[in-house]
Design a protein that fits this description.
heterodimer; A: mainly beta; five-stranded mixed β-sheet; 11 strands; 0% helix; B: 113 residues; mainly beta; four-stranded antiparallel β-sheet
């Protein structure tokens, strides 16, 4: 069965520190991969996407993600976190032949000033 | 920048009543989606819609739910007889192509009492 796992429910980092949020997926074929962010009371904003090609993709707000086929992972990174990055982050693959995004349970990021 | 809009932002209804949630997708997009997020849980796919018909639906999308594109701009989700467990945030999304990035609206919070 197709699934996505975000192992970390809640992460707290200091402002200026680096960040890595983990995402692992289990699909028969490599899915399209997306990261979304949801600020409190807000909708879902697309951060970045991976379809194919270069395994390191750049997104908005200084985020990047690396696709690793051997590890079935698509981890989100940011070199220096800002207080405004505090939000919930969702990894969402889309499998071949499917229209839907399958969301992970999300990782809540707290930032200490 | 074009965006997906949803109305109302919050709807309160009594159990057994019909509700219609409205969405205006991005104007040149062809694929439309509804997702829901029960408080504290992950975002779940409900349905996708293309060329005036449902292209994919989840197990959640039973006979109580229906979708419609009544004109060239609106996309609606109808729940015929609401239940307490339908209380959730409902997100509309649209994309230009199948499996392309989906852009989400701000959501409608539905409260069933």
């Amino acid at each position: 069965a197709q699934s996505v796992t975000q192992p970390d429910i809640h992460i707290t980092v200091s402002e200026g520190a680096s960040l890595e949020l983990r995402c692992n997926y289990s699909y028969g074929a490599t899915p399209y991969l997306f990261w979304y962010v949801q600020s409190p009371g807000q909708g879902l904003q697309l951060l970045l996407k991976y379809f194919s090609g270069d395994t390191l993709v750049q997104g908005i707000k200084g985020f990047e993600a690396e696709f690793k086929r051997s590890q079935s992972s698509f981890n989100l990174r940011k070199p220096s976190v800002h207080w405004s990055d505090a939000a919930e982050y969702f990894c969402a693959p889309s499998g071949a032949g499917s229209y839907q995004l399958t969301f992970g349970k999300g990782t809540k990021l707290s930032v200490i000033p | 920048e074009p965006e997906v809009t949803q109305t109302p932002s919050h709807q309160v209804t009594q159990m057994g009543q019909e509700v219609i949630l409205r969405c205006v997708p991005i104007s040149n997009h062809l694929y439309f989606y509804w997702y829901r997020q029960i408080l504290g849980q992950k975002v779940e796919f409900l349905v996708s819609f293309y060329n005036n018909e449902i292209s994919e639906k989840s197990e959640i999308f039973d006979d109580q739910f229906s979708v419609e594109r009544p004109d060239g701009s609106n996309f609606t989700l109808k729940i015929r007889s609401t239940k307490l467990e339908d209380s959730a945030m409902y997100f509309c999304a649209s994309s230009s192509e199948t499996r392309a990035e989906q852009y989400f609206g701000p959501g409608t919070r539905l409260t069933v009492t």
